[in-house]
């Protein structure tokens, strides 16, 4: 009985060893394909990436570079430059000049409404006349009081009048003398008031304090002006006047370089507006103060002769020289091209530079004659201002598109 039940249980038992095993799918070819596609995409992206290159410009050597002690930048300014404003408040009636006009010292620049000033001047004249008449009348009264005193003294000696009457005459004479002094003082005050009124009237006419050129017109007819001018904000200015015969360059020199600057030291000025011209100059003065924020001092460099066409606030570069240049040094036509020596590479015995033109690389052969500092002199090469790659990599190819990166960035 027990054996029969055991056999039945054996029949019901599951044979796990006899169950067929499922085959796992082979997915590794799919993963390999994905990895290959990813590697190909990375390769394509690296190939199409635009490389960034650092560039420098081919420049033309300027006169006096061998004698240059140091260089500094600055701006053209004038020793005489002023915002012309009225000395009294008032309404602007007319402006007699325009921008660009050359004016002489004392020339009329503008006129203010003078009606109020004329009323004040007429009243002051009337007060002066009244004070004058008051003084004349007081002096006449004082003269009579003096005569009365003399008569009273004679009568007192003859004992005709009492001492009290004599004292009254003396007091009256002293009082009139005081009245005369008061009248004189009042007349002097009236004269000063009349002078002030006349001066106020003359201040309605604004004149040029010095000879110069009108560079800006700051107000038009009808404006109500106050007698003040604040830098960068016009409150009462009518015009800005600049003496173009007193132009100079204000150059900023670092404080550690100041010992290399001396008064009357020769210099050359290069203006951004006239890159092909060089102007002789010399150091006029060093401003006796240091800009704490920039650690620089201002050096005033005056032109040997004021060049035509130069205007205030033009950008300038100053080369301070070790010694004076010969008279014909600036007229020589031997300017040479220079470029950073790290821009020139050798390729098969030939010197060349990589020029960036329209965002793409171009091979440009050059002929180097000598090395000066960190630059080389080119006898043949691209024109001034051409951008060339600094320290080019060997993998650069002609026609490849590149992104220009400045030397500071």
From TrEMBL:
Q: What protein family does this chain belong to?
A: Belongs to the membrane fusion protein (MFP) (TC 8.A.1) family.
Q: Which residues form the YknX-like C-terminal permuted SH3-like domain?
A: 341-404
Please give one Pfam family short name: BSH_RND
CusB-like beta-barrel domain ranges (all copies): 249-320
Annotated membrane-spanning segments are 28-46
Return one GO MF term: efflux transmembrane transporter activity
Name this polypeptide is given:
Acriflavin resistance protein
GO CC annotations? Answer: efflux pump complex
Under the heading InterPro entries, the entry gives: Beta-barrel_RND_2 (IPR058792), MdtA-like_BSH (IPR058625), RND_pump_MFP (IPR006143), YknX-like_C (IPR058637)
Give the keywords, sorted. Answer: Coiled coil, Membrane, Transmembrane, Transmembrane helix
Q: Which residues form a coiled coil?
A: 128-155
Describe the location of the Multidrug resistance protein MdtA-like barrel-sandwich hybrid domain by residue ranges: 84-226
Q: Which Gene3D superfamilies match?
A: 2.40.30.170, 2.40.420.20, 2.40.50.100, Helix hairpin bin (1.10.287.470)
């Amino acid at each position: 009985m027990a054996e029969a039940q055991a056999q039945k249980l054996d029949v019901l038992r599951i044979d796990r060893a006899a169950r067929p095993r499922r085959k796992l799918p082979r997915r590794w070819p799919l993963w390999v394909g994905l990895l290959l596609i990813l590697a190909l995409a990375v390769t394509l992206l690296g190939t199409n990436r635009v490389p960034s290159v650092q560039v420098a410009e081919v420049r033309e050597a300027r006169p006096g570079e061998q004698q240059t002690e140091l260089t500094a930048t600055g701006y053209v300014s004038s020793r005489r430059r002023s915002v012309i404003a009225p000395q009294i408040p008032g309404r602007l009636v007319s402006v007699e000049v325009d921008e660009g006009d050359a004016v002489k010292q004392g020339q009329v620049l503008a006129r203010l409404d003078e009606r109020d000033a004329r009323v004040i001047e007429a009243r002051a004249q009337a007060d002066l006349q009244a004070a004058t008449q008051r003084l004349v009348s007081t002096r006449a009264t004082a003269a009579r009081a003096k005569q009365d005193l003399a008569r009273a003294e004679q009568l007192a000696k003859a004992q005709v009048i009492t001492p009290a009457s004599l004292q009254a005459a003396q007091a009256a004479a002293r009082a009139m003398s005081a009245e005369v002094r008061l009248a004189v003082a009042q007349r002097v005050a009236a004269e000063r008031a009349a002078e002030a009124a006349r001066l106020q009237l003359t201040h309605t006419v604004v004149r040029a304090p010095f000879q110069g050129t009108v560079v800006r017109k700051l107000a038009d007819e009808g404006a109500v002006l106050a007698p003040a001018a604040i830098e960068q904000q016009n409150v009462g200015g009518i015009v800005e006047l600049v003496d173009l015969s007193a132009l100079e360059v204000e150059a900023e020199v670092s404080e550690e370089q100041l010992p290399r600057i001396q008064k009357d030291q020769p210099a050359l000025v290069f203006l951004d507006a006239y890159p092909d011209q060089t102007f002789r100059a010399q150091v006029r003065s060093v401003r006796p103060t240091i800009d704490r924020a920039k650690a620089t001092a201002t050096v005033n460099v005056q032109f040997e002769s004021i060049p035509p066409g130069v205007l205030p606030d033009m950008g300038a570069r100053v080369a301070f020289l070790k010694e004076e240049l010969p008279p014909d040094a600036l007229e020589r036509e031997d300017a040479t091209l220079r470029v950073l020596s790290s821009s020139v590479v050798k390729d098969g015995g030939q010197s060349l530079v990589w020029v960036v033109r329209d965002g793409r690389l171009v091979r440009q052969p050059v002929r180097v004659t000598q090395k000066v500092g960190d630059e080389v002199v080119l006898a043949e090469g691209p024109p001034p201002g051409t951008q060339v790659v600094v320290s080019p990599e060997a993998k650069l190819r002609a026609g490849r598109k590149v992104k220009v990166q400045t030397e500071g960035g």
